[in-house]
What we know:
The structure is a homodimer.
Chain A: H1 19-25, E1 31-32, H2 33-37, H3 45-57, E2 61-66, E3 72-77, H4 79-83, H5 85-117
Antiparallel strand pairs in A: 1-3, 2-3
Chain A binds a DNA duplex through helix 2 and helix 3.
Amino acid sequence: MFTACDHTESPFRLGGKWTAKIVRCLEDGPRRFSELAAPLRGITPKVLTETLRSMERDGLVTRTVGDGIPPRVDYALTPLGRSLLAPMAACCAWAAAHLPEVEGAREAYEQVAGSAVR
Amino acid sequence: MFTACDHTESPFRLGGKWTAKIVRCLEDGPRRFSELAAPLRGITPKVLTETLRSMERDGLVTRTVGDGIPPRVDYALTPLGRSLLAPMAACCAWAAAHLPEVEGAREAYEQVAGSAVR
DNA sequence: CCGTATCCGACGCGATACTG
DNA sequence: CAGTATCGCGTCGGATACGG
């Protein structure tokens, strides 16, 4: 999703299940691994690691490791990642505003589909 | 992706591979099935049908069937679907503007990862 | 022209358990 | 604390062929 607008193919997609939420969690500053996991309820450490790695790979976040016991790792948005905040906020606002409409449309559609079968 | 911003779970995601492109294809008015398939190079009829159905289900597009030979079916954005254009344009603009950066970051990351292994 | 039917591989995501 | 190691399953997307 959200490749360039000219219908060319692009190898990167921003559509991971958790990506948007992680960006927003990092909006107000760096967060530790466990600080990210807490608000993202239900995410497993494996998936959180995977997602953060791919975001790091794409230049959206940085990963800084502190040396000590216990370990401390901080994740932070890069300027590139920060530039994502505005467009993503627009989409999030859309979702928040129109979720009820979508759900209503779904219910209405189920009615029609259900009656069509019978 | 792009559920409500409050970290609640939501059953709907806008992250289909072709959804965004279809919305933009419909921006300037209704399009027939084949008119959609043409610019979306590589999409199979099955997937196009599936995607359009789910968008119809969510109230984003309408499907109007003309009676005649050959058959004619037009797809058009609903007001709800049209309201998606603005936020999506923001994301598409981001992608267009920052795609090179992301690709650069990927190459740089490959360098590091590759040298780390060896 | 506008789809449907079938089959299938790949990947995303999760559960669970374990480690430096 | 911050991960890694395995395993598994469901969904998404694609190839191909056929139908009204």
